[in-house]
Automatic annotation (TrEMBL):
Annotated SUPFAM superfamilies: S-adenosyl-L-methionine-dependent methyltransferases
The protein, known as: Methyltransferase FkbM domain-containing protein
Domain Methyltransferase FkbM: from-to ranges: 138-295
Species whose genome carries this gene: Thalassobaculum fulvum
InterPro entries associated with the record: FkbM_mtfrase, SAM-dependent_MTase, SAM-dependent_MTases_sf
One Pfam match: Methyltransf_21
NCBIfam families: fkbM_fam
């Protein structure tokens, strides 16, 4: 834990950088949450009493006040665009989830039907990651169920969701729970950087990338049938040194191989674990056989099945784990570099 700076150091830093609106917040490390922003404003009021130059105080307060106003605006948007329902999440507590769209209501109905049986192994694993303060990429966030849980548990989250309507649901779930270190990008994750065109249809659970999306007809941008969506490679998103996710969770309905092709550098770096909600019966639509997943990661990586009870076992190399079971939507696979 970093030792807080002493008051003379604070005074000297702010006085020497009056034109830098975040000098005080940066020095005090008061920018991780809205509560920290409020504390910064309080400290500024005290420093004004202590006689810090008015110009420096004004510059600092202007930036922090605008950030604080943004948070309050988001709170208002979340409240005005409800409704929400509360769910008790094991290991986290009560969280609010939107019921504003058919997709959101359908997902909550699925949770209610499954009860404690809805992906308990994944839930437990992600809550543990959140408690570590991990940086997690949630690829295929849907309505933001796991993004919200990760943020509430303490993770820093960057979520990717390609459907514009679902993007709004993820944002409202985060805002309603005041989770300011979880962020969502309106992007598909694949093996190239550029545009795709998403057919405008109801994003109920089970939405997946299809040929009409990845290869639309000519002049798709002129048609009312499509939304243009950014496609990104994970290697591109996390190319800056020091911004490397501890965990990447991928649930994109059979498009997993394309996302992993766009993460070759992250895999080679050996600092990131991958949790795949793997769809053996869907990957064939994109030209792959399920067992090919065993060749994507280096041979010294642990390759495991994450069971619903939270236990892990090695993936069966015979391929039996990938046999299609109509009662099982997907199989949870963990790929961990040595020493992780």
């Amino acid at each position: 834990m970093t030792t807080p700076p002493k008051l003379p150091d604070v005074l000297a830093a702010v006085a020497s950088q009056p034109a830098h609106p975040m000098a005080l917040a940066s020095l005090l490390q008061f920018a991780a949450s809205r509560a920290d922003i409020a504390r910064s404003l309080t400290v500024l009021r005290w420093l004004e009493v202590l006689g810090l130059p008015a110009d420096s105080i004004r510059r600092q307060r202007s930036m922090l006040s605008r950030i604080d106003k943004t948070f309050r605006h988001r709170d208002a948007v979340a409240q005005q665009t409800g409704p929400f329902e509360t769910r008790d999440i094991p290991g986290v507590g009560s969280l609010r989830f939107s019921t504003a769209t058919g997709a959101a209501r359908a997902f909550l109905a699925l949770l209610d039907r499954e009860g404690a049986g809805y992906e308990p192994g994944v839930l437990r694993y992600l809550v543990e990651e959140g408690r570590k303060g991990s940086l997690v990429a949630d690829v295929g966030a849907h309505v933001g169920y796991y993004t919200t849980i990760l943020g509430a548990a303490g993770a820093r989250v960057i979520a990717f969701e390609m459907h514009p309507d679902l993007l709004l649901e993820v944002k409202r779930n985060l805002w309603a729970n005041r989770l300011d270190r979880a962020h969502v990008l309106n992007a598909a994750v694949g093996n190239y950087d550029g545009l795709i065109f998403n057919v405008r249809f109801d994003p109920t659970p089970g939405l997946r990338v299809e040929d009409p999306i990845t290869a639309p007809p000519p002049n798709a941008i002129d048609k009312a049938l499509y939304d243009p969506v950014l496609s990104v490679r994970l290697d591109t998103v996390f190319a800056r040194e020091g911004v490397v996710p501890d965990l990447i969770k991928i649930d994109i309905e059979g498009y997993e191989f394309e996302a992993l092709k766009g993460a070759r550098n992250l895999i080679a770096g050996g600092r990131t674990r991958f949790l795949l909600e793997f769809h053996p019966h869907l990957v064939g639509a994109f030209g792959h056989k399920p067992e090919e997943i065993l060749t994507v990661f280096p041979p010294d990586w642990r390759q495991e099945v994450l069971a619903d009870d939270g236990t892990r076992r090695p993936i069966d190399p015979s391929g039996r784990d990938f046999a299609y079971d109509p009662d099982v939507e997907n199989i949870k696979l963990l790929f961990c570099p040595p020493g992780s």
